[in-house]
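Honest question from a wet-lab person: if I give you the sequences of every part of a complex, can you actually get the arrangement of the whole thing, not just the pieces? Trying it with mine:
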Amino acid sequence: MRASFRPRLFIDRTIRKQSCFVIRCENCVEMLFVRGSGNCVQCDTPLRKNNFRVQLFEDPTVDKEVEIRKKVLKIFNKREFDFSGLREYNDYLELVEDTVYNLTNNLDVENTKLRMEQYQRENRDLIQKNKATLTREQEELEELLLLEQQGNEQRRLDVLQEEQRQLNAKRKNKQALLDELEKSQLPATILLAQHKVRAAQLETQIEHQKQTVKPTNLFSTGIHMRQTVSLLPAPKIEEVLYRYQPLHVETYGPQVPELEQLGRVGYLNHVRAAMPQDTAGGYSSALACHRAVQDAFSGLFPFKRMNS
Amino acid sequence: MFHNSSQKKYWIFPSEDEVEHKRSKANQKVRSKIQENVKPGVSDSMLLERHEEDVLFRHYEKRLLDFCNVFKPVMPKSVVGTAIMYFKRFYMNNSIMEYHPRIIMLTCAYLSCKVDEFNVSSTQFVGNLVQESPAGQERVLEQILEFELLLIQQLHFHLVVHNPYRPMEGLLIDIKTRYPTLENPESLRKNADDFLTQAAMTDAGLLFPPSQIALTAILNSASRASLSMESYLNECLGLKGDKESLSKMYDSMRRMKTLLKKYEFPKAELVNVCKQKLERIHAEFGISSNKRKRGYEEDGHVAKEARLAEEEEWTDEDLI
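Yes, you can. This is the full assembly:
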């Protein structure tokens, strides 16, 4: 039975879990019930055969916590809306987390369960109401999804019908030509010319149909076209106006000419000119020149009191 | 840039006395450490005096400069300047008796190559030690790598050093552009370069901003060629109305020139005497090597024997 502790060693990968949160692989589950009464080997809780769930997460502790959380949240299902302030809501959330934590790690299980039952008794009505709203919301969502799906289906069918119609029209045209060739008195060339004209007309008709926009009565956001919607203006926030102050760096030396001025003043004549390979990368001789001059002037007058 | 660099904030001192004071303090600290902890009762004459330390320091500095000058591939000047500056800064707060300058000087050069982005692999670096066998080079490399972190720490992690070479270029460009009175500024370059090399051996880097050193170099070179550059200072650098700043500037330049004149390379006999003393100190008290051994045990490193065995394997496969 040691093997049941390591379900992954078994070839059969489906792993089952149970209400006492011990992991068993499927083989071991069957073996357990063949052997006689259903008691978990590790924790000695009585087991029922239909009370097994497939494990969803790799880590067993995570799976256990997820299950416990679902149960707890069925009871503790208040929403932010039900609280008077942020502080109370956060306290409530902390209570929920503590409950889940205690139950997951088997700390103080008795007290926690008692507290849960007490909460349930006190807030029975609120719990019921919240359950109802939850189900209602879920139904609404489902309805919306259904509508969307129906719309998609409809569009698909329309497109198919359209294509079908066009194919039929073309076929009829060809058939008409053949019939006329059979019955009519006019020479073949004239008939062919007529047929060509008709085919061209059909083509342009199809093109036109593709381009006509189907009239609709809904905007893309879901609002009806004729409906008047009142939109509130965005709230105004008053703040102090920002004033830009240029950055001032103390260099303790004479002022360095700007990068753009270097060429004009004549500095660039005394620096090695940039080769085409250099300029391709964005280098210009002004950069090297500027750096050299900056370095030459920086810290030249460490004692001088500079005016701002 | 220099004006908001760590060099300006922490490594520029107001006077030579302050620099000297720090060095004496380091010397004193090691002396008391040796006398109290390592081997009490040692006579003072065995330990290095301040001036003897100075002699050795200048000797090893020159050796560092020579090592960098014959380095293959050719080391740019800024890398050499940075290495010398690291050497100076390290021995301002530490004593030669504690860490042997031979290794520290190589570590300074190695670190300087890295910081200045002069890409040299470690094997290439020790390959420049032509007197050593490949095994010896390996050992030296090991020691360098051991001391590298210590060096960085003693530099207070201030690794960017501003050298006067680029400011000199900048000043020459400025002179050519804005000071047409001087006909051929390029003629000043050679003398200014020599001045800068000499200044690197003195404490000028610890006392003056690099742009000032560069300016002094150029003005010195100009006065050597009997050209007057007063008007450059007045007009182009905007010091015309500011008598106070101008006099302060001249004062600094005078101090710098004195520093250069005062520098003299110690005589060979004196150097040898001091060297012997140093070797004896390191052999007997070996503070830094003791530290290393203790460090190994504390870190739970593999014993040193195993490493030596590895070294022997390496010697055959050495590529140099």
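Two things worth pointing out. Residues 293-320 of chain B have pLDDT under 50 and may be disordered. DSSP finds 16 helices and no strands in chain B.
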